[in-house]
């Protein structure tokens, strides 16, 4: 069939004549065009074309996939298996280093973590508490509901971080000034957030050493002598608790880290009751 020159060509069948297709064209059946379909609501997108046949479901990443991170299990952290060599060896474990301000917890924890032959992380509760910038509740300005809430939130965050590291084969050492006279919000809280596999060790040098080390600190990490003495006195309650205690009054940092490793090895073999 020929058309006159200049006459418009009819639209191809099924292509539609305008922005919307007719019912006959929509169904794919030839024949007279029926009444047009009602326009779609503003902002409505037509359904995407879906190919026939079974859908391809992506497989979950394997443990060998680059960048894959295991989520921590919902259950508490169990006790690690005893190492087959002196010290903690290649054991994957969670440690809680307890002590007053100026005991050297952070310095010892960093060195111990850095000297291990296996991946080990260090998480300081004070560092996590100070992630709060605007609205930070400084305990030195008075212990109140805000400082208590920020402490609890930081401890929960540290506990999740420890389980997250352990789930991915990385040991973790946490440090915090936990008081023996507050078991529910202190050691009990750490046990709830990490699990019975957490190994607590107390670092408790003499008062004179703690005062000297505290004097070398700056910012809100430096406490008054009266506050240091009060905290040190409360920490003395750990004696007789059954937890291992290291008096590092005469130890340098390297010696303290070595003693800590020996103490942890004994704790793995014979866990303290807490």
Give a structural overview.
This protein is α/β, with parallel strands linked by helices and 274 residues long. The protein is 32% helix and 9% strand. It has a five-stranded parallel beta sheet with strand order 2-3-1-4-5, with helices on both faces. Helix 2 (105-115) packs across helix 8 and helix 6 packs across helix 7. Mean pLDDT is 79; it is low at 14-28.
Structure in a nutshell:
This protein has 274 residues and is of the alpha/beta class. 32% of the residues lie in helices and 9% in strands. It contains 8 helices and 5 strands.
Task: Spell out the blueprint of helices and strands.
Layout lengths: L22 H5 L66 E5 L6 H11 L4 E5 H5 L15 H23 L3 E6 L10 H7 L4 E6 L3 H9 L9 H11 L9 E2 L6 H17 L5
Identify the notable features of this structure and list them briefly:
274 residues; alpha/beta; 5-stranded parallel sheet; 5 strands
Number of strands: 5
DSSP strand content: 5-15%
Shape field: globular
User: What is the element string, with H for helices and E for strands?
Assistant: HEHEHHEHEHHEH
